[in-house]
Write a structure and sequence with these properties.
Shape of chain B: elongated
Low-confidence stretches of chain B: none
Distance between the termini of chain A: 31 Å
Helix content of chain A: 25-40%
Number of domains of chain B: 1
CATH superfamily of the largest domain in chain A: P-loop containing nucleotide triphosphate hydrolases
Number of strands of chain A: 16
Largest sheet of chain A: 6 strands, mixed
CATH class of the largest domain in chain A: Alpha Beta
Radius of gyration of chain A: 25 Å
Low-confidence stretches of chain A: none
Order of helices and strands of chain B: HHHHHHHHH
Mean pLDDT of chain B: 91
Largest sheet of chain B: none
Number of strands of chain B: 0
Number of helices of chain B: 9
Strand content of chain A: 15-25%
CATH superfamily of chain B: MetI-like
Structural class of chain A: alpha/beta
Oligomer: heterodimer
Helix content of chain B: over 70%
Number of helices of chain A: 16
Mean pLDDT of chain A: 86
CATH topology of chain B: MetI-like fold
CATH architecture of chain B: Orthogonal Bundle
CATH class of chain B: Mainly Alpha
Strand content of chain B: under 5%
Strand order of the largest sheet of chain A: 6-7-8-3-9-10
Structural class of chain B: mainly alpha
Shape of chain A: globular
Chain lengths: ~375, ~210
């Protein structure tokens, strides 16, 4: 756990403090995003945690230990640090870059190699292909991944990330964010993340600290921030579409429901008719014996006889279970269906989401907070 | 006697003088690299010292080589030591200055990333700063070495041999062939060295970008 108490930084010669009496508590496994306009003191705060900047006043405790009293070299080796892609050393190979910290810690060669390979695979970079390449041979997204891998090399419990996805195009950024969220779900690091992009903050954070002029404006969960902005400044930062943004915080798997009817591809039409009986008429989803989604049967087709195999039609509206609700809505609008199927990565059928479910979610979310 | 004929009959002597010249320059440049990189690093790390060292190396450049040689005679006499000191002094400016700029021009992000990862100052110097500044330092060495190949010819005046011998003797005997041989070989040596260091520089530029 990280506790920041009465933290103040006044740069020499400056009259206004860059960080002004900041108090924050970040729980273990939490991702705390510091967000605000440039010059709000977010990066200064971050750099005081690993003593790249020495505070004027106040204390920072990591697991009860005052970082100001810890040797800076020792401290930094236990805190992962990711900055924009330019921080990769251009004269070193990808392998050497990732191995930097473990080399300093004098790990045996075998252990370093195992760790670097493990991280490269984790980051979706084939070690055999990329180990001897240089940062300049890589795409922006790949460089960013190497940056994250390098910070994680010595498996630090705490990671500091300063606009880590700032220098890539929006599409790559979105993908890197998703990858990192998946990773964080497994690794449960304590992360302090700096960004000026409120959407990134809402997506990545479990807690969001809005800063302005060196002061903390609001510190709460992403949903709390959208539902109850502290003042006009926070409202402006969020922008007008807070309901849509809240749909962005909810994953498809959290609201999906079981469909009314699911048929096996081995079922005959008579079986299906018997199952439905006189219940409401709608689409019948078809899976195989391993629960893989095959397609659907329109209700009208049930007039026929015999096997259903030739009647199955492909599903157009289909999303992954970790899709955000806002994206699910967008997909429904573009396909023109009021119902969308949810599948996992192996195309296993998980459930369905209807337009009504999305409306209900938006409604209930606002009821909770009003 | 024609020029080509002269070359063939005196090839032993020309080769000996060429080798002498190369040794003199090589010896001087190695000392200059050691001293120059050291002074450049100190200047980069301590701004106050840089305010003394950088102007000093610049001023020494304005002293004519023949004068510097003369100034040194009462101190170290004539001969090898005098010549080496002269050549080192003339080499220093580019090497010191390029080491200083090379280190100073490394983008702050690399240094910060290194510090943020818990690298010690010594590691940052040897693993990050020096390798990244290397192309610029080599460019400085390249300028210096090409320059002292030329100045080295003047050093024959205080009896250290080298291709300058051909030029001075040629002037004394008004032998056009001798002067020409000395001058041409000094030029060839400069051009070849420059080419080689250019390649070296390019190699390291590619390696660090």
């Amino acid at each position: 756990m990280i506790r920041i108490k009465n933290l103040t930084k006044i740069y020499p010669g400056a009259e206004i403090p860059a960080v002004d009496n900041l108090n924050l508590e970040i729980g273990e496994g939490e991702t705390c995003v510091l967000v605000g306009p440039s010059g709000c003191g977010k990066t200064t705060t971050l750099k005081m945690i690993n003593k790249l900047i020495i505070p004027t006043e106040g204390t920072i405790l990591i697991d009860g230990e005052n970082v100001l009293k810890v040797d800076p070299i020792e401290l930094r080796r236990n805190i992962g640090y990711v900055i924009q892609e330019i921080g990769l050393f251009p004269h070193m190979t990808i392998f050497e870059n990732i191995a930097t910290v473990s080399n300093e810690l004098n790990w045996p060669k075998d252990k370093i190699k195992d760790r670097v390979y493990e991280l490269m695979e984790l980051m979706d970079l084939d070690p055999e292909i990329y180990r001897n390449r240089r940062p300049s041979d890589l795409s922006g997204g790949q460089r960013q991944r190497v940056g994250v891998a390098r910070a994680m090399a010595a498996n630090p419990p705490v990671m500091l990330m300063d606009e880590p996805f700032g220098a890539v195009d929006p599409i790559t950024r979105g993908r890197l964010q998703d990858e990192f969220l998946n990773l964080q779900e497994k690794l449960k690091k304590t992360i302090i993340f700096v960004t000026h992009d409120i959407n990134e903050a809402l997506k990545m954070g479990t807690k969001i600290a809005v800063m302005r002029g060196g002061k903390l404006v609001q510190y709460t969960s992403p949903d709390g921030l959208l539902a109850q902005p502290e003042n006009e400044f926070v409202e402006d930062l969020i922008g007008g579409d807070s309901t849509l943004k809240r749909l962005h915080l909810v994953l498809a798997k959290e609201v999906m429901k079981n469909p009314l009817y699911v048929a096996r591809d081995s079922d005959s039409i008579a079986d299906i008719k018997a199952k439905i009986g006189d219940k409401p008429k709608s689409k019948i989803y078809v899976t195989d014996s391993e629960n893989t989604l095959m397609g659907y049967l329109p209700y009208a087709q049930l007039k026929r006889e015999g096997s259903i195999n030739s009647l199955i039609q492909p599903v157009k509206a289909k999303i992954a279970d970790y899709t955000r609700l806002s994206e699910a809505l967008s997909e429904m609008l573009s396909v023109g269906n009021s119902m969308i199927c949810v599948v996992d990565d192996d195309n296993n059928f998980k459930g369905v989401i209807s337009l009504q479910d999305i409306l209900d979610t938006a409604k209930s979310e606002s009821e909770i907070h009003s | 006697m024609g020029f080509i004929e002269f070359l063939f009959t005196r090839n032993q002597m020309v080769l000996r003088l060429l080798l002498e010249h190369i040794w003199l320059v090589l010896f001087a440049i190695i000392i200059a690299i050691i001293v120059g990189v050291f002074l450049g690093l100190i200047s980069a790390y301590y701004p106050i010292i840089s305010k003394i060292i950088l102007p000093f190396t610049q001023i020494t450049m304005t002293v004519p080589s023949i004068a510097l040689m003369g100034i040194l005679i009462p101190l170290v006499g004539i001969g090898m030591i005098n010549a080496i000191i002269c050549l080192v002094v003339y080499s220093l400016l580019s090497i010191v200055r390029n080491t200083y700029t090379g280190i100073k021009e490394i983008p702050e992000e690399y240094i910060e990333a290194a510090r943020g990862m818990g690298m010690t100052k010594r590691w940052i110097l040897f693993k990050i700063k020096l390798p990244l500044a290397l192309p610029v330092i080599i460019a400085g060495v390249r300028t210096s070495i090409v320059m002292i190949i030329g100045i080295g010819a003047i050093m024959s005046y205080i009896g250290v041999g080298g291709l300058g011998d051909l030029i001075f003797r040629g002037i004394a005997r008004t032998s056009r062939n001798m002067i020409l041989t000395g001058a041409i070989f000094v030029s060839i040596l400069s051009i070849v060295t420059d080419f080689f260091f250019g390649k070296l520089e390019n190699y390291f530029v590619k390696k660090t970008s």
